[in-house]
Specification:
The complex is a heterodimer of chains A (747) and B (144). By secondary structure, chain A is an alpha+beta fold. Chain A is 37% helix and 25% strand. The relative contact order of chain A is 0.05. Residues 128-193, 394-403, 584-602 and 733-747 of chain A have low confidence and may be disordered. Chain B has 144 residues and is mainly β. Chain B has one domain (2-139): CheA-289, Domain 4 (OB fold (Dihydrolipoamide Acetyltransferase, E2P)). Helix content of chain B is 15%, strand content 47%. Chain B has helices at 56-59, 108-113, 130-133, 135-141; strands at residues 2-9, 12-17, 21-25, 40-46, 49-55, 70-76, 79-85, 87-94, 99-100, 114-119, 124-128. Chain B has a six-stranded mixed beta sheet. In chain B, strand 10 and strand 11 form a beta hairpin. The longest helix of chain B has 7 residues, at 135-141. Chain B is globular. Chain B starts with a strand and ends with a helix. The chains are: A alpha+beta (747), B mainly beta (144). Chain A binds chain B through residues 209, 212-213, 451, 453, 501-502, 543-549, 551-552, 554-555, 558-560, 564-568, and chain B through 31-37, 40, 43-45, 48-50, 52, 79, 81, 135-136, 138-139.
């Protein structure tokens, strides 16, 4: 297809979309001149350009529409529902011809006489159909199409991305200044039209790929130059610029959800007419943005959810009245951003989901046993609607579609990494909630080692890391062959990655090697993944895996690491499923656990750590997390060691001399216990995290004085780390000169 | 007259029409994928994408071999993938007069993967069909 036709199609499809939006608004505000004008322009544009391209069907249809719209515009006809329906039919007709042109390059052999006749009939109430010459119309309405008198001149093909249409004054027609202003003002959606560019999506995708490659190369450069002091400044700058570029390219692909929300009013209008419902649509958060491809992916689920609401949710007006509700139901579309996700909600104030019926249907369909069904709570019963093969409609209506169930909605949303849940209250209504991740292809991950390979573990699911050296292997408990770890009183099921990946082979037992547990939380399944080693966290570019490898059911993609090795990306959710980790919360273990503890008073709980041969205790309530890092991560302000977590500085207390002991070996693993002290965080460098235990108070002999700073842990006197003694970092009130002097001495 | 790229596997020579070949990469080091189907040779990084490779040795049930492997980057109807072979040799021009279809004695698997052979001066060049070597196709047909 040539450039001209392609642009013709794009422009007019957009115009028709706007027209559709205006038409649904027009029903609410039949006298709104701005809306009528907008609709008129869309049809006029089509008519104008068709002559040049020779699309006769379009020309005739558009002409008939223009006549009708002319009467509306002149106030000789009102936009009552039958007229709006007629215009919607016109819209559909025009759209379908455009679609045929797109597919076959020509208009096809359809017959429009009926539609044209209908449109002409609608004109009857006004006197005679008024036939103004096209020119006169143009002069009043500064038509934005380069049509009418001047030969339609779409921007030259070489220009590539061409300007979106603001109302450009035509060369020939003399648009008076005010009507031009009016035109601009009355355009509902084209706010930033003048400052935007239309860009081919393929081009943007290519840019995304290139940025991905840049991120990988940056990672490699960072790794290769980490030792060279001269390169660090440059590497850091490269890092910043890459991160910035990536953010901006991703932003370029973002579109407001109004792009998909805007189609809904029309659907609702058509459906409510077909089903005898009265529904008003409320939209919130239209400006929330989402990556274009993700928007595309949820278009269908959204439509289906809306159809469901109207078909099965909102009751007919008389039923509602009888129930004391407003006969007009409300369908609410809401989009909001929550952290790294966008949440899209479709809610109605209809009858809600009949949970009993769901239970019955599920049993009937053999999706669940009667026994099991009896044990399910209401919340869990609701989730049954997502099972394939489920539908409570007595007759599968044409409207909701045959065989397109909530399971397809869920599958589509999960395909893009999202989640869907449903909430319902009988008599009050139903809400469908879709959570879509914002970021696409680049995620922060922790690199772990197992079976002599590196794997990437997405940080999103990772909550903490625990190191169990061989001598502490007993910390891993076995209950009927299932490995468990007691994490702060709760039992954590463990999954050994090496055994999962190479089931037949013999693997070293826990007492023969270093064990690292990555505590993961994947949709309510909490477990610890045991790996052989940890490497640095990295921002990785997710590369898709072929379906053959995806079918293995453990990996969600692959990536190229900073050291140029390939690594598979582990999927915590899939691992949990494969390893059989259940959804239920792990059982909390009663305090007063081990029998060796003599008198277990209700002491405070402490984290027992070891630093340079001596044991110390940190109050557990103050412990936020345990970090495992290479020594190279420790930076210095003057002589104070600190850790930098994305711009947040953590002073590291090293009275145990752990950092000094590891000096000279940048790869040495340092364990830092991150604690809360007042309203700041501090880190304590330790050699090992030993255990969690309850401590008891100690008293000075002969007195009733409680001795401060110590506690009795596991029958040993153990010093309690005084977090408040960790000196605060210099505050920013310090003179900049002195600050930079300190920084310079370090660099 | 067609041009075929010859590859070696042990003592056998196989041919792949050059029209399907995107690139020849020497000394490939595929990253193994745990629990992958037997015919998967591993993953390789190719021009920004991560490719799945098929090991011809594993596919034809031949014993594993240590040492260097060459990689053919192929494009089939299903997409781009890699084929791991012992080594890639020269490009030969063959004529249709030398073509022989698959003999009936071939087993099922070889019948599906081979697309006949060309008689060379003192050997046989067995033709491979790239579309049949595509990992998706292999997985679907459960040939391997």
């Amino acid at each position: 297809m040539d450039e001209l036709t392609r642009e013709f199609l794009i422009e007019n499809q957009e115009g028709l979309d706007r027209m559709e939006h205006c038409l649904t608004d027009l029903e609410e505000r039949p006298k709104d001149e701005g809306l009528i004008g907008e609709i008129f322009r869309a049809v006029h544009t089509i008519k104008g350009t068709t002559g040049f391209l020779g699309f006769k069907r379009l020309e005739h249809l558009a002409h008939a529409g223009e006549n009708l719209l002319g009467l509306l515009r002149d106030g000789r006809l009102t936009a009552d529902p039958p007229t709006v329906t007629g215009l919607l039919k016109l819209l559909d007709g025009l759209r379908s011809i455009l679609k045929t042109i797109e597919a076959d390059g020509s208009e096809g052999e359809g017959e429009d006489a009926v539609l044209i006749g209908y449109l002409e009939e609608l004109q009857a109430p006004a006197q005679a159909p008024v036939k103004h010459p096209a020119h006169a119309r143009a002069s009043t309405y500064a038509a934005s199409a380069p049509s009418v008198e001047a030969p339609p001149a779409p921007p030259p093909a070489k220009q590539g991305p061409h300007l979106a249409k603001p109302a450009e004054p035509l060369p020939a027609s003399m648009a008076p200044a005010e009507s031009l202003g009016e035109t601009l003002r009355s355009r509902p959606q084209v706010s930033a039209a003048e400052s935007t560019l239309r860009v081919d999506v393929t081009l943007l995708n290519r840019m995304m790929n290139l940025v991905g490659e840049l991120v990988l190369t940056r990672n490699q450069v960072l790794q290769a130059t980490s030792a060279d002091p001269n390169m660090t400044m440059l590497s850091r700058r490269l890092d910043m610029v890459t991160a910035d570029l990536r953010e901006n390219v991703m932003k370029a692909r973002m579109q407001p959800v109004s792009n998909i929300f805007s189609k809904i009013p029309r659907i609702v209008r058509d459906l409510s007419q077909a089903l005898n419902r009265r529904v008003r649509v409320q939209v919130e958060g239209q400006d929330t943005e989402l990556d274009k491809s993700l928007l595309e992916a949820i278009k269908d689920p959204l439509t289906h959810a809306v159809r469901n609401s109207l078909d099965h949710g909102i009751e007919p007006p008389d039923v509602r009245r009888a129930a004391g509700k407003d006969p007009e139901g409300t369908l609410k579309l809401k989009a909001s951003q929550e952290g790294s996700h966008v949440v899209i909600e479709v809610s109605d104030d209809g009858a809600g989901i009949n949970v009993e019926k769901v239970r019955q249907k599920a049993i009937e369909r053999g999706l669940i046993t009667t026994d099991r069904a009896a044990h399910l709570a209401e919340r869990e019963l609701l989730q049954l609607v997502f099972l394939p093969g489920f539908s409570t409609a007595a007759a599968v209506t044409n409207v909701s579609g045959r065989g397109v169930g909530m399971d397809v909605v869920r599958a589509n949303v999960e395909k893009i990494g999202g989640k869907v849940e449903i909430d319902s209250r009988t008599g009050k209504g139903t809400t469908l909630r879709m959570r879509i991740p914002l970021t696409l292809a680049i995620i922060p991950a922790l690199i772990v080692r197992s079976i002599n390979q590196s794997f990437a573990l997405p940080q999103g699911a990772l909550s903490e890391l625990v190191h169990i050296p061989p001598e502490e292997a007993s910390a891993i408990e076995w209950i009927e062959n299932a490995p468990l770890y007691r994490l702060r009183g709760k039992l954590l099921p463990l999954v050994f990655l090496d055994r999962l990946l190479m089931p037949g082979k013999e693997h070293k037992s826990v007492s023969e090697r270093d064990n690292f547990i990555a505590v993961l939380d994947a949709d309510g399944r909490r477990f610890g993944l045991v790996v052989d080693g940890l490497a640095d966290p990295e921002e990785i570019v997710v590369k898709p895996l072929s379906a053959v490898l995806k079918d293995i059911g453990l990996f969600s993609g692959a990536t190229v690491l900073g050291n140029a090795d390939l690594a598979l990306i582990l999927d915590p959710g899939l691992i949990a499923l494969k390893a059989g980790v259940s959804l239920h919360e792990e059982e909390a273990v009663n305090v007063g656990e081990s029998e060796t503890e003599a008198d277990e008073s209700k002491g405070m709980e402490f984290l027992l750590v070891e630093a340079a041969g001596r044991q110390a205790a940190v109050p557990l309530t103050d412990v936020l997390r345990i970090e495992q890092l290479p020594l190279s991560r420790i930076e210095y302000i003057g002589y104070r060691p600190v850790l930098n977590f994305e711009g947040q500085l953590l002073p590291v207390e090293d009275s145990g001399g752990v950092l000094a002991a590891a000096e000279g070996n940048p790869q040495a693993k340092i364990i830092v216990v991150v604690c809360r002290e007042g309203n700041r965080h501090v880190g304590i460098a330790v050699s090992h995290v030993l255990d969690v235990a309850a401590g008891s108070d100690l008293f000075e002999a002969g007195t009733d004085q409680r001795t401060g700073g110590v506690t009795l842990l596991k029958s040993r006197v153990t010093g309690v780390v005084d977090l408040s003694a960790v000196a605060p970092l210099p505050a920013s009130e310090q003179a900049p000169a002195e600050w930079s002097r300190i920084a310079e001495t370090v660099a | 007259m067609k041009e075929m790229c010859t590859v070696r596997l042990g003592t056998s020579m196989f041919g792949v029409p050059i029209t399907h070949i995107l690139e020849i990469v020497g000394a490939a080091r595929p990253q193994p994928v745990p629990l992958a189907p037997i015919f998967v040779g591993g993953l390789v990084h190719y021009r920004g994408d991560v490719l799945t490779t098929v090991s011809l040795r594993q596919l034809l049930d031949m014993p594993p071999k240590e040492g260097r492997q060459d990689l053919l980057v192929l494009e089939s109807a299903g997409g781009i993938f890699g084929l791991l072979v012992d080594s890639v040799s020269e490009v030969l021009t063959v004529s249709s007069t030398d073509y022989e279809p698959n003999p009936s004695i071939l087993d099922q698997r070889r019948k599906a993967l081979f697309a006949g052979a060309y008689k060379l001066k003192d050997s046989l060049l067995v033709m491979l069909d790239p579309d049949q070597l595509d990992p998706m196709r292999l997985s679907a047909s459960k040939v391997a």
